[in-house]
């Protein structure tokens, strides 16, 4: 028996030696295989919340976007369809609180911009009807508060503001607004407005070069003052300085198959993640530090079922949960962090 254990230990040490030798001194093919196998194992970050929503039958249309009012525990869902409520307001535990359908034609993007004094939600409307081609602000009960653009009329003029299929927006706590205008319309631009809706800076040229766009589809900010744009048609993400509008760089090496349809940051700010519509995938990349663009190297993915088609997403900055509007599956799904570290307040 003693001889057996001696032989077993010797075999283990011999195997370990051979593996180390192969990594550093062996044939290149085997070295590469061991390296890739060691470092490409992805770390799961989220799990699907099977209890959200409480009743999936509430989605009577096709949800195109979702927005989270973190301070008040509200989740807004905008859906398309005939003779249905275009807006649903849910609690963070999945109960339907109310629905409304006022002055919303064809919703595309959305952002909840609540303060301690008011609960509001902004909607980009790409419809061809009497409310289309606008960016509109509502209170949580559906009362229209503000309209940017001329309802029902598309165009490219900036004075007054004029939109053509505005895709999405991001509103800072200061009231400054970032809008990507160009979901397949005449415009391909990123603009920043002051709280009183004056133009602060603009990038508005179609093309493939830096600051040019081809279907800018989603926009978000990080905690270091960078604006991130999902330049879907160009299969890349571009970054800008939020104060000056200066171009900082881009990521395109993650998008050989398909461009990003949505871009957001996890609540703790550690990861930037993007959705790809036709691949039905969410991909997570370590967020670069301030002063660096870094590189796009995926560290984790959530692979959804075929033809689920994640369109736009949003993050609960209080709980860390991610909500995904899926136009193929005609539903919104909720993913919760596996670790408590992702639930702290972030960008």
Secondary-structure blueprint of this entry?
Elements: H1 2-24, H2 28-39, E1 46-48, E2 62-69, E3 74-80, E4 87-91, E5 96-100, E6 107-112, E7 120-125, E8 134-139, E9 144-148, E10 166-171, E11 177-181, E12 189-193, E13 199-203, E14 205-206, E15 212-213, E16 216-221, E17 226-231, E18 236-241, E19 247-251, E20 262-265, E21 271-276, E22 281-286, E23 298-303, E24 310-315, E25 322-326, E26 331-337
Parallel strand pairs: 14-15
Antiparallel strand pairs: 1-26, 2-3, 3-4, 4-5, 6-7, 7-8, 8-9, 10-11, 11-12, 12-13, 16-17, 17-18, 18-19, 20-21, 21-22, 22-23, 24-25, 25-26
Describe this protein's structure.
It is globular and about 45 Å long. A hairpin with a 4-residue loop joins strand 8 (134-139) and strand 9. The chain contains two helices and 26 strands. Strands 1-26-25-24 form a four-stranded antiparallel beta sheet, with no helix packed on it. With 347 residues, it is mainly beta. Mean pLDDT is 88; it is low at 4-9, 15-40 and 341-347. It starts with a helix and ends in a 10-residue tail after the last strand. 10% of the residues lie in helices and 40% in strands.
Gist?
With 347 residues, this protein is mainly beta. The chain contains two helices and 26 strands.
Number of strands: 26
Low-confidence stretches: 4-9, 15-40, 341-347
Portion of residues in beta strands equals 35-45%
Helix and strand content put the structural class at mainly beta
Describe the sheet with the most strands.
Answer: 4 strands, antiparallel
Number of helices: 2
**Average pLDDT, to the nearest integer?**
88
Rg over CA atoms: 23 Å
Helix proportion: 10-25%
Shape: globular
Strand order of the largest sheet: 1-26-25-24
Measure the end-to-end span. 61 Å
How would you spell out the order of helices and strands? HHEEEEEEEEEEEEEEEEEEEEEEEEEE
């Amino acid at each position: 028996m003693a001889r057996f254990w001696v032989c077993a230990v010797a075999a283990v040490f011999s195997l370990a030696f051979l593996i180390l030798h192969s990594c550093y001194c062996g044939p290149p093919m085997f070295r590469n295989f061991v390296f890739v196998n060691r470092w490409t194992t992805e770390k799961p970050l989220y799990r699907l919340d099977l209890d959200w929503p409480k009743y999936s039958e509430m989605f009577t249309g096709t949800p195109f976007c979702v927005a989270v009012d973190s301070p008040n525990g509200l989740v807004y869902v905008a859906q398309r369809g005939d003779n249905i409520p275009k807006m649903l307001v849910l609690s963070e535990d999945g109960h339907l609180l109310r629905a409304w359908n006022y002055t919303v034609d064809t919703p595309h993007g959305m952002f909840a911009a609540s303060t301690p004094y008011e609960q509001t939600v902004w909607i980009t409307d790409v419809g061809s009807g009497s409310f289309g081609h606008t960016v509109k602000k509502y209170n949580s009960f559906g009362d229209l508060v503000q309209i940017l653009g001329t309802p029902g009329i598309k165009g490219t003029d900036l004075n007054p503001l004029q939109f053509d299929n505005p895709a999405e927006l991001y509103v800072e706590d200061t009231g400054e607004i970032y809008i990507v205008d160009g979901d397949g319309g005449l415009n391909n631009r990123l603009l920043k407005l002051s709280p009183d809706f004056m133009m602060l800076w603009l990038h508005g040229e179609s093309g493939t070069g830096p600051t040019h766009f081809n279907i800018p589809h989603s926009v978000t900010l990080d905690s270091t003052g960078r604006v991130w744009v999902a330049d879907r048609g160009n299969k890349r993400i571009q970054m800008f300085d939020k104060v000056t509008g200066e171009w900082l760089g881009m990521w395109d090496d993650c998008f050989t198959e398909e461009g990003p349809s949505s871009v957001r940051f996890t609540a703790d700010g550690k990861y930037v993640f993007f959705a790809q519509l036709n691949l039905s995938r969410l991909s997570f990349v370590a967020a670069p530090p301030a002063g660096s663009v870094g590189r796009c190297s995926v560290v984790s993915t959530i692979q959804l079922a075929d033809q689920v088609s994640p369109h736009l997403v949003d993050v609960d900055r209080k709980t860390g949960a991610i909500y995904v509007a899926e136009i193929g599956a005609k539903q919104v799904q909720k993913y919760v962090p596996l670790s408590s570290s992702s639930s702290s307040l972030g960008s």
